[in-house]
Fold this sequence. Notes:
Shape: globular
Low-confidence stretches: none
Number of helices: 16
Strand order of the largest sheet: 4-3-2-5-1-6-7-8
Mean pLDDT: 92
Distance between the termini: 17 Å
Helix content: 40-55%
Strand content: 15-25%
Number of strands: 17
Largest sheet: 8 strands, mixed
Amino acid sequence: MTGYQKTTDFLFNLQRISAKLGLDNILTLLEAVGNPQHKWPAIHIAGTNGKGSTAAILESILLKSGYRVGLYTSPHLIDFTERIRVNHTPISKQDVIDFTNRIRPLIKTIEPSFFEVTTAMAFWYFAKQQVDITIVETGMGGRLDSTNVVNSLISVITPIAFDHQNYLGDTIEHIAMEKAGIIKKGVPCLTNNRDPRVLALFEEACQKKDSSFIKVFDNSSYKVLASGLFGSKFNLEIGGNFFETLYVNLPGEYQLENISLAAGTIFQLNDKIDIPDSAFREGLTSVDWKGRIDSISTNPNIIIDVSHNPCGVEKTLAFISRFFTKDQINVITFLQDDKDFQKIGDLFVKYAHKTSIIDLKLGKPLNPSKLLAHIRSQNGNANIIDSLESVKTEIYNQNEKEYLWLIIGSHYLAGEAYQCFSPEKAAQIVFEKF
């Protein structure tokens, strides 16, 4: 076993410690490594769906503009190092080892969670790499999330939906208030939410913090020119600026909501960062964000998607159903125990011919029998399989119809799928640059 493997085993073992929605541990960890969070400015992103895509879009545009950019997202697909990257290159394995060894005694003393340690590592690494700017995605909340110690240039909040109710509350209002916790005094807040309940809560929170509140769609709009499984062509108007015939390589028209949010963020920061129009265009065409309606094969048709709550799953299935009929769509899925499997199962029944549920032992898995029973109770077609390998032969030998195999429901599953069906892309994800 390598030193890196031993280190990540130690880190992943911290997941047994319950998530700690508070800032004491992260502040203690950061103080031990020189308070690196004060050494770079951040674009701080919270929300339920679209955080990662918005972050990746911003990263790509900033890189094309010549900035040295740190990006912190979670979870990873294949390798831990994906979570922390500078100029699109993941943190080195040696840096992971060195940081962990440095604070290991403190970890044993204060018993922080996995996410707290990972956040501290990311902030330390960004300072070490002397980044110009960072894009920091919250974990699951906002108010007490470990990332909520950054020096924010702007607070960005993506659409709110039901997820992680055990921690964030069981109403949209409760969840929205937790996300609004990233709003800081005097720091502008930008959102592409459209729900009046959510917007009212955000506006009130901004008033209390004396922060300007910007609703992206008050001064922006887009028009789809063409949309397919490999991207979209569109026009965008924002703040009086008109961009004609833009192209983004992320499929799904809902990505234009994320692009509008990213564009609004850049527009609001135009006195702090310089983004040439050419960099904006080039950034959109070169976004690298795996697991978002990613067509890894067209013969046979295989798509990988990490959507894992009802809102995200429905957007993906609704988009895909424009290109494939219900009889053509076969879902392969794996869910975590905290997901609303009944609503997700109903969507599979509505949009898919068959659902195959994998019995994986990763994270905190849902008992596959629960999803199986629910789908069958709704007159859906479902079965349980042992692994992706067990359906690989069926997928590659299917010649009767133009079937689609949609692998959806979890980052864990997406990582397994890349390695099983697209080892070349799996290698790209971890960049082979350690």
